[in-house]
Design goal:
CATH topology of chain A: MetI-like fold
CATH class of chain A: Mainly Alpha
Number of domains of chain A: 1
Number of strands of chain B: 12
Structural class of chain B: alpha/beta
Distance between the termini of chain A: 45 Å
Radius of gyration of chain B: 22 Å
Order of helices and strands of chain B: HEHEHEHHEHEHHEHEHEEEHHHEHEHHH
Shape of chain B: globular
Strand content of chain A: under 5%
Number of domains of chain B: 2
Oligomer: heterodimer
Helix content of chain A: over 70%
CATH architecture of the largest domain in chain B: 3-Layer(aba) Sandwich
CATH class of the largest domain in chain B: Alpha Beta
CATH superfamily of the largest domain in chain B: Periplasmic binding protein-like II
Structural class of chain A: mainly alpha
Largest sheet of chain A: none
Order of helices and strands of chain A: HHHHHHHHHHHHH
CATH architecture of chain A: Orthogonal Bundle
């Protein structure tokens, strides 16, 4: 027994599980949680013929809804990239009274039931709401049209950008910026050449997450959108509408299209990230 | 003394255990706005069942959108009975063998113990002078209706408007044009009945809300009386509230008799009166008369008169590519 343990101890004993175990675990877990539900989705659409599938996913209302869902999600994610970065920057670089509270506020859209968010945003922005009553005389309508969709999606997507950029910003060395300044860089050059490249991958991740989250969002959008066909119907509403007429297969067909588009977009974003890392010479 | 107490406690516990074991439970899957009605009805039924059979029974409720509930039952929710506000929801369960194929014949009045109809709610004093369906298609009138794609409330409003046009002697093509004009005056399509009420009363959008008669009671309760005027159009549609026993569940749980008794009692005078108090139209003519102030007599059109059945109306009007889609997609 002692001999055995002696011979064993020559090989360094690993505390963490090895590649085989972890890969096995990863695959099993991903299958259970992600792949099996998603393949059930795909199998359900197989009950349709190709023509039926095509008709279900290319109706005029459906096409208009893709445009709104992906367009509004893109705008919302871009807005969140700009303002999320700003918020993360302030939270990392400055100390002020109530910083902990502000920090906690950022997470609120994560925790809040989305329907609650939708209802409160509508109450604020509708023509008789606290904010809406001042904007409507100016001709600015923010609720019950696509603007409302964008606003709801900005709300739910904000934490994704802040929370991915924040830790990276914390790790960037202030000395680099000081060195850049010493070497004569302007403030813009310091930002664009020194700070931005180091946080760009995180920013891109945050963008991808906020975007993906926005595409699937239903609860908050539905109360503020107005839901008029061809104008303010989001794709998840089309899916619910199809379920409402017991068209399970049609609903899953639209879902599969969303899934494929989202997956492709996320792949592109991942590729962008990899390319960006190679370009800046950071370890991939 | 101490021993006695102990015995008492043991007896009480075993008694409790015995009753809870013998008390059958029944799950009623129902639609959202029926919550208040079934709360009152369940209390009445439990008392009635105890009195007539001596047995205790516990009724649980599951509420949600009518067709969402039907899907849940189809997917395996173990409801003993379904009480819906659209016959298509029960048709769907029947076509999948979850409820009996001839469910509509199992109880009187096509298995619909109560019904409702569509009416208008206008702002207090009716500033736009809305009296009938024709007033809803006038330029400048904003109408709040539920999206027929997502709510039975909206489908009934659509069919009621169509039936009105037909009753006036118009052809189907003219009726389609009429309904198209009506939906052009709809700035927001609400997701469901309650959402529509919120848009109309809390967001203050629109001049008139088309909704179920039974919604008026809850509007008065939630928002205070006198905020809205109920306007009855000259013609409206009958919206049956059908019920059925879920054969799949009762076969498994052995609750068939209880489920039938539960639904039968909906036709009793006591239950019909509870329904009337919740502004659901009772079947009994005497009760309709008694609550004449709630149920003003108007010309009521059954769905079968112009649409065959709700399932057929669903196919022609509301499914993808149907008549409702054409309002928005055909210019």
């Amino acid at each position: 027994m002692a001999l055995f343990s002696l011979t064993r101890s020559r090989k360094p004993a690993r505390v963490l599980p090895g590649f085989n175990i972890t890969l096995g675990f990863t695959l099993t877990y991903l299958s259970l949680i992600v792949l099996i539900p998603l393949s059930a989705l795909v199998f359900k659409t197989f009950t349709l013929t190709w023509e039926q599938f095509w008709a279900a996913v290319t109706g005029p209302r459906v096409l208009a809804s893709y445009q709104l869902t992906f367009g509004a999600s893109l705008i919302a994610a871009l807005v969140n990239v700009v303002f999320g970065l700003l918020i993360a920057w302030v939270l990392v670089r400055y100390n002020f009274f109530g910083k902990k509270v502000v920090d906690a506020l950022v997470d609120l859209p994560f925790a809040l039931p989305t329907a609650v968010a939708g209802i409160s945003l509508t109450a604020l922005l509708a023509g008789n709401g606290w904010i809406g009553q001042y904007l409507e005389p100016l001709g600015i309508k923010l609720a019950f049209n696509p603007n409302g969709v964008v606003i709801a999606l900005i709300f739910i997507g904000l934490p994704f950008v802040v929370r991915t950029v924040q830790p990276v910003l914390e790790d960037t060395e202030k000395e680099l910026e000081e060195a850049a300044t010493c070497l004569g860089a302007t403030r813009w050059q310091t930002f664009s050449r020194v700070i931005f490249p180091s946080i760009a991958p995180a920013l891109l991740t945050g963008f991808a997450m906020a975007f993906a989250r926005a595409i699937g969002e239903y609860g908050s959008v539905i109360f503020i959108a107005g839901n008029v066909p061809l104008v303010s119907e989001i794709t998840p509403l089309i899916i619910v509408g199809k379920l409402e007429q017991y068209d399970y297969a049609g609903a899953t067909a639209v879902a599969v299209v969303m899934l494929v588009i989202s997956f492709c977009l996320l792949l592109v974003i991942n590729a962008l990230q990899a390319w960006q890392r190679r370009r800046t010479g950071a370890p991939a | 003394m101490k021993k006695h107490l102990l015995v008492c406690v043991v007896l009480a516990i075993s008694g409790l255990a015995a009753t809870s074991a013998s008390a059958q439970t029944l799950l009623n899957a129902s639609y959202d706005v029926a919550r208040e009605f079934y709360k009152d009805y369940n209390a009445a039924f439990v008392a009635h069942y105890k009195k007539t059979t001596g047995k205790d029974v516990k009724i649980d409720q599951a509420h949600g959108g009518s067709s969402a509930q039907a899907r849940a039952v189809f997917d395996g929710l173990e409801a003993d009975v379904v009480t819906m506000n659209t016959t298509t929801d029960i048709e769907f369960l029947a076509s999948n063998g979850v409820v009996a194929k001839d469910w509509a014949k199992k109880f009187p009045n096509n298995a619909a113990p109560t019904s409702s109809t569509m009416l208008f709610l206008t702002r207090n004093g009716n500033p736009k002078g809305i009296k009938d369906w024709d007033d809803l298609i006038k330029p400048g009138v904003q109408v709040i209706i539920v999206n027929p794609k997502t709510g039975g409330n909206g489908r009934m409003a659509y069919l009621a408007a169509w039936a009105y046009a037909r009753k006036k002697g118009q052809t189907d093509a003219q009726a389609a044009e009429f309904v198209g004009k009506l939906f052009k005056n709809v700035p927001i399509l609400a997701k469901g009945g309650r959402d529509a009420t919120t848009i109309f009363l809390q967001r203050n959008i629109g001049d008139v809300l088309v909704t179920f008669e039974s919604e008026v009671v809850s509007v008065d309760r939630e928002f205070g009386e006198g905020k809205v005027d109920a306007v009855l159009p000259s013609v409206s549609i009958i919206a049956d509230n059908p019920v059925a026993v879920v054969e799949r569940t009762v076969a498994k749980k052995g609750t068939g008799e209880l489920a039938k008794a539960y639904l039968d009692y909906l036709y009793s005078d006591e239950a019909q009166e509870i329904a009337a108090k919740h502004a659901l139209r009772p079947r009994s003519p005497a009760l309709l008369k008694k609550y004449a102030s709630t149920f003003k007599p108007i010309q009521l059109v059954p769905v079968s008169e112009y649409f065959g059945s709700l399932s057929e109306a669903q196919k022609v009007h509301f499914n993808d590519g149907g008549q409702f889609d054409k309002i928005y997609t055909v210019k």
